[in-house]
Amino acid sequence: MYKLHFDENICKKCPTGDCLIKCQYLDIEKNQVKDEMVKIAQGKDSFVLEQCVTCYGCEEYCRRGNHPFYLITEKRDEKGILTSPRAITKQWINIGEPRGKYQLGEIKEKILSFGFMPEFLDMVKGKLFEDLMPSYVFGQEFFCNVVYLHFANTQIIKQRLPMVVENFRKLGVEEVVFMHDECYGAFSSLAPAYGIEVPFKPIHYFEYLYQRLKDLASDIKPLNINVAYQRPCSSRLSPDKHRYVPKIMNLIGANLVEREYQDENALCCGGIFAMDYGYSLAHDVQEKNLEDMVAHGAEYCVFNCPACQNTLGEKVRKRGLKPIHMVDLCRMALGETPKMEE
Amino acid sequence: MKDILNRLAEIVGEEHVSNQPEEIFYYARDPGLMPPHNPDYVVLPRTSEQVQKIVLLAKEEKIPLVPMGAGMALTGLIIPLKGGIVIDMKRMNRILEVNEKARYAIVEGGTSQGALKAYLEKHYPRLRHSVPDAPATATIAANVVIHGQGRLTQQYGFNSDMVSGLEVVLPSGKICKIGSSSLSSAWFSKGAPLPDLSGLFLGWFGTTGIITKVALKLYPRKRFRDVDVFVTDSEELVPEMVYELTHTEMAEDINVFSQPLPMIFKDNHHITIFITGDTDEELEFKRKMIWDALDPYIKSKDGGFMGVPPTMKPTFLDMPQRSVSRFADVKKGGGFEYSGPIILVEKYPQCTGKIRELASKYDLAYSAMARIIGRGHCMMFGFAFTFNRSDPGMMERTRKALSEVSEFVLEMGGVFWKPTVDEQKMALNKMDPNTLSILRMIKENLDPYGIMNPGNWEVA
Amino acid sequence: MKYEEIVHRCFRCGYCKFTGDYSTFNCPSYRKFGFDTYSPGGRMWLIRAWLAGEIENTTRLQHILFSCATCASCVEHCVFTFSDDLVNAFVAAREEMVNGGVIPPRVRDYLKSIHINGNPYRAPGEERDKWAERMSVPPYDGQEYLFYVGCVGSYDERAQKIARSVSDLLLNAGVSFGILGKREICDGNEVRALGERGLFQSLAEQNIALFRELGMQRIITLDPHAFNAFKNDYPELGGHYQVFHYSQVLAPLLRGEAMPFRELRARVTYHDPCYLGRHNGEYTAPRIILRSIPGLDLVEMEQSRENAFCCGGGGGNFFTDILGGGEESPARVRIRQALDTGAEILAVSCPQCAKMLDDALKAENAAEKMKVLDVSEIASLALPQSQDSCSNGLSP
To answer: Closest Cα of chain B to A56: distance in Å?
Structure first.
């Protein structure tokens, strides 16, 4: 079985304790962090294991190459500490089960992966993708399964992710552009952390969009709009790609409003919080987030993750902002009709 | 026989009566599994007076009469077990009056659920009725005659509890008004403060008279409507979860379902909780109350609210839910039937256990669907099996499974809802003899010749 | 029978009978006759019974099957995955009847006339271009488009006027087109819908051969029924063309202001023909034309677009009249719906609808209140050189 590479000595020597100090949901003193992380690494009990809300943030806050969130998840799984109601976990595991109903486009050496997010089947079109489409994959067979981190279930990930890797390998592809950064994180962060070999080059779709927009620069009509960006949990697995957000906005002439809950300080959409922890946490986080968007004059809320958009889209709209996915926003800058307006 | 046809034609017009093989074939059966039996005639009356004349003719000739709406009960209640005349009521589809301030509507006996819903949405957007999940063709009158349930049943009881007046053509041919309408122009009550005579007709499946007009209570229609779905893998906890939910009095409707497919529904029980509000604040307040009521189960990890994708919400919010009908084609065979006993909510675990057992025993695809009636006073638990109409073996297995359900229901202290003829016999056999004698007395007095939907509610 | 594999899958739930909001029944034959046997679900169950030998091919069964207007409202509203093939199944059942040789006399007469005369009017083929006399409509000679007029537009007096107004508009807009005139052959849409597959195939093959000989690639049709045949049925027989209803050619030109209209003050409601709307999804082009006329007030009937109520002429009923007649005939119901809008003009974009509704208007004694005009006729009235409806002879 695959084993997480985690070095507790790195924690012991850590001068900052950023992983938990920066956490927006845990109340912890700096001098406690080291002890708690070491306790967790050694398989001992820790209040962190009980109180972590699975925002993924610590994966980004740790700058020393350790994987605090994967560790927390691993240990919760070992101890049977549930983050999520059993029924919710079962539901998600059932949804993700491969059923032989995947879709393959015209597979080339470089492909787009929609994971198991049907939203991309309608969204991915137009000039931005004419290089690659219809070279794509979709379905449970190509679903990264990383979402089960939220459910403290690393076993299912370790069981299914290698099969997904194998499915990609069978296609013989060399490069895969992942339209969801959870999938990208699966192959750029999680798989390496568990020693799972990845036989292709994963590419984050932000990077792809950025290159395409540069190629199509002459077609871009600056949008001249104020946007708030809703950063998803899974972006924490690839913080280096988050840097493309301002760069893309810059290219398409969208003004990314400077607000409190952005970048490292971003707040969860609340979707998982609602399922796992009930009304209050989700509602409070969403209210803070939405008020922040409104207070800073955003006209659009730009989503990276379709699940975040499903959770927050309607609430954003009720606050007078237009919800839009990053892909649609970029298409709009190219004079194309975004999916939401079709 | 020719004479009867001509006399019927004189009443309703030649084009609205048939004894042709096509109509005989079609009106001999319903979409369920009960064996067909041919009628002799099918008529389409347009007015109460025409119904009256048909009844008088039938009385004179001692011909059975079977009133029919859309025939969607699935349990064979409109199959003319002893032949005779099927009266298809659907041409009597006028909405006669809406009293906005008193919140009731008077409709003709063949008016469909869909038509009333559309009419209210257009002309009285602040009013609604309790729409069942039967297809939109289902009629208001037939639905209350079988004690149907609908979207407002958790708040206000059976749809028949929402009746506020009736016009009935009695087997004698008399046209009779029931409730306040018997001495007032206002149809606000089916009984109180008078003796409630509606019980002589509601639940009788047309064996005591033909309903030609129904007054139905209407209720506030809020601007917004939403649904949350609480899932649990613990069927034992469902009754107490429902108890907590009904205690809030915040829900429009509460249903519970479990089914093995699609995969998103496998292994779990789903409590669908509908909420309404005129403002976002009202909606959110109700949502919070409901979520808080179930919070202990979230904390104990025994259940949680699933994220309902925006693409799935319209399926839940659809009224009536067309997805219920789609269940008929799960096996690409156009059939489903369910036994839907009215039973205590506390029996939910036993019922779900039973349906799983039967599905496995008879190799059938199933859906368990429960609708909470009143504030948890009871529920309708649907043991639904889908079958392929071109697979006689599967149809027979479905019959057997449903037959076992019937036995089980009585064991569990449940009461059949819209029972088949066989279930009616089982119910009458088990019934308190004194109750039975009242039923007999009523039937013999109202329908001395036994011409009204004979075969049903036949007290020996 | 083709589609036999779906007939047992009907649950007879009845959603097929309704409009989308359930406000009323939208199946023309069910609405007219009232028996469930005349609903789409009724047909499904009876077809199954007939195939299984439980019922015979009787006059009544023929009436039930051939009174279907193939309007596809059931296709639109059925909740099942096989909904797309409902009308196909009804047509297939008609094919079975035709193959068995026992069909309603009016259907037999229609098919016989097409077989013998090439048109349902028992008129000589030489008269096919009579509608274009006194007009400078060019014969097709390799122009960009063939303007296919069809049997109704060629022979029916009312429809001929529409053929002329469409030609006028195309000429006015500078569209490069020509007609086949005497060489035109019936498109066969109604032949197919009435179940004579062999005759349809023969007509289609003749047309395809002719079109090939002429090197024709792009067709404008007057009639949505022909549009449907060319677009959806000819490809499987090897006829692949770019097919346009005339409104689809004219609407884009209006956007480019190629045809500036003068003001036409009128309240107009538009009736969606089934073979343009539900069968082929074109609800917009005719409305674009109407909306581009200054002063024209376009109001919608309660039942429009996907929920439009059929005039009752579809599926061959225009010729066989099995469904028509009486106060509850679909066309008369539709006229009453149009009158409810307060419109002075009921716009159509199908010569069959025009004729059906025109007759119904008279039957309803409402000719004083409203006119039935084709969209092309209304547009012609709004052309700057047009004087008024009377002088153009456009009044029906």
So the answer is: 19
Asked whether residue B422 is assigned to any structural domain, the reply reads: no
Task: With CB atoms and an 8 Å threshold, state whether C23 touches B118.
Answer: yes
Q: Which residue in the set B287, B306, B309 is minimally distant from A88, CB to CB? A: B306
Q: Do C22 and B334 touch (CB under 8 A)?
A: no
Q: Tell which of B204, B220, B236 closes a domain.
A: B220
Question: Last residue of some domain: B187, B204, B220?
Answer: B220
**Domain at C260-381, CATH class:** alpha beta
Q: Are residues B187 and B244 in the same domain?
A: no
The verdict on a CB contact (< 8 Å) between A87 and B268 is: yes
Tell which residue, A104, A342, A336, A98, has the closest CA to residue A221: A336
Chains near C (3 or more Cβ pairs under 8 Å):
B
Chain A neighbours (≥3 Cβ pairs under 8 A) are B
Q: Which residue range is the domain that position B201 belongs to? A: 93-220
Summarize pLDDT for B191-218 with one digit per residue, the tens: 999 999 999 999 999 999 999 999 999 9
Residue with tokens 């020996």: B460
> Which among B22, B72, B332 has the least Cβ separation from residue C46?
B22
> B222 to chain C nearest CA, in Å?
18
Per CATH, the number for C123-251 is: 3.40.50
Tokens describing residue B457 = 């509610």
Q: For residues A150 and A83, is the Cβ–Cβ distance under 8 A?
A: yes
pLDDT at A341: 58
Q: Are residues B99 and B50 in the same domain?
A: no
| Chain A: closest CA distance from residue B261 (Å) | 10
Token pair belonging to B15: 């084009």
Chains C and A touch (3+ CB pairs under 8 A): no
Alpha carbon of B127: minimum distance to chain A alpha carbons (Å) = 25
pLDDT tens digits, residue range C254-303? 865 667 899 999 999 999 999 999 999 999 999 999 999 999 999 999 99
Q: Which of residues 77-96 of C touch B (CB under 8 A)?
A: 79-82
CA distance A157 to A163: 10
**Domains in chain A with CATH codes:** 8-79 (no CATH), 87-205 (3.40.50), 209-341 (3.40.50.1860)
The strand pair at B224-232 and B303-306 is best described as antiparallel
Beta strands A175-178 and A110-113 are: parallel
Cis status of the peptide bond prior to B45, with omega within 30 of 0: no
Question: Does the beta-carbon distance from C80 to B326 stay under 8 Å?
Answer: yes
Q: Please write the tens of the pLDDT for every residue from A172-210.
A: 999 999 999 999 999 999 999 999 999 999 999 999 999
CATH number of the domain enclosing B168 = 3.30.465.10
DSSP C29-67: HHHHH--GGGSHHHHHHHHHHHHTTSS---HHHHHHHHT
Chain C touched by B44 (CB under 8 Å): yes
Strand B85-88 and strand B65-68: the pairing is: parallel
Residues of A in contact with B267 (CB under 8 A): 87, 90-91, 94
Locate the chain A residue with the closest alpha carbon to B234.
A87
Let me know the angle formed at the C-alpha of A281 by A278 and A284, rounded to the nearest 5 degrees.
Answer: 130
Cα–Cα distance for residue pair A146/A186, rounded to 1 Å: 6
A with B: how many residue pairs have Cβ under 8 Å apart? 79
Q: Pairing state of beta strands B95-99 and B104-108?
A: antiparallel
Is ipTM over 0.90?
A: yes
Are B35 and B66 members of one domain? yes
Q: What pTM was computed for the model?
A: 0.95
pLDDT at B90 over 80: yes
- Residue showing tokens 């009333």: B116
- Residue B345 inside a domain? The answer is yes
Residue to substitute from C4, C5, C23, C58, interface B, most B β-carbons within 10 A: C23
- Residue of chain B with shortest Cα separation from C41: B26
